[in-house]
Amino acid sequence: MDLWYSEFHTPDAKFSIKVNKQLFSGNSEFQRIDVFESPEFGRFLTLDGFMMLTEKDEFIYHEMIVHVPMAVHPNVKNVLIIGAGDGGAIRELTRYTNVENIDFVEIDEMVVEVCKKYLPQTACSFDDPRVHAYYQDGLKFVRKHVNEYDLIIVDSTDPFGPGEGLFTKEFYGNCFKALKDDGIMVNQHESPFYYEDALAMKRAHKRIVESFAISRVYQSHIPTYPSGHWLFGFASKQYHPVKDLQAKKWQELGLVTRYYNTNLHKGAFYLPNYVQEMLTDVE
C-alpha cells in the first residue's frame, strides 16, 4: 500500500508527496511535530500538518532569507533570529566571519531537538559559539531590546498557532525599536497566489509599512510551499535592498550558494503585476 503525505492548500487544491516511512511523530506543548522520509524530497518536517521544509528544496528558502539582507548591510555583527527552529537560517548566517553574535529565539525547544536528530543537514550549526539560544516567545523577547541588532530575521511559521504573534503591528514595531539606526528586518511573507495566503501577506505588509520607512517585498520559487511562489519582506531604516546592494563585496566573500546570487537578488524585487497591485493597495 502506498503512503502519502497530503496538505490542503485550499479546500479545492491538495499537495501530496509519496512517503517511504514516518521517522518521528510527537506533540510538544505547542504543536504536533512530524518527520517523514520521501523518495522525491528526502526527509521533511511538518508542524500541525503543514509543510515546513524538505531536504531537497530548503536551501532556496534559507539562502533567500539570509543572503539578501547580508548582501545589503555593509557590516552585520549582531543578529536576532526569531523562529527558525530547523536551523537552516543559522547555518547560512554562521558562514559569515563578520557576524559576532546570533541570538536565536524559538518558542518550541522540541522542534530544535527533533531537527538535530532527524534533519542534521539544516540543524548543523546550533553548536557554533556565536549562537545563543533562548526558548521563549519571540514577541516577549524582542520587547526587551532597544537599538541593539544590525539584522533581525523573522523565520516564523504561518500566522496562526504559535507563530500568530509574529505577524502583529506590535511585534513589527518592537523589531523596529530593537534595530540599530541602520538595521534591517527580513521576514517570510507568505504566498500571494491563493486567496487566504494573499490576505495574510497583505496584512503583514500593511503592518510593516506602518513601522519602516523602507519596505519592499521579494520572491522566490519553493516547490513544496503553497503554489510554489513565495514572498519575503525586506524592511529597513536606511538601506534600500537594490540600490544599496553590495554586489562586488558579497561576491568577494566566495560563499558557494545553490540558489542565491547577486543578479538574482536584484531580479527578486521585480514582482508580477498582480502581486505589485496587492501591495500597492495596502500601502
From TrEMBL:
Binding site for spermidine: H62, D86, D155, S156, T157, D158
Family annotation (CDD domains): AdoMet_MTases
GO CC terms: cytosol
Gene encoding the protein: speE
EC number of this enzyme: 2.5.1.16
Alphabetical UniProt keywords: Polyamine biosynthesis, Spermidine biosynthesis, Transferase
Protein name: Polyamine aminopropyltransferase
One Pfam match: Spermine_synth
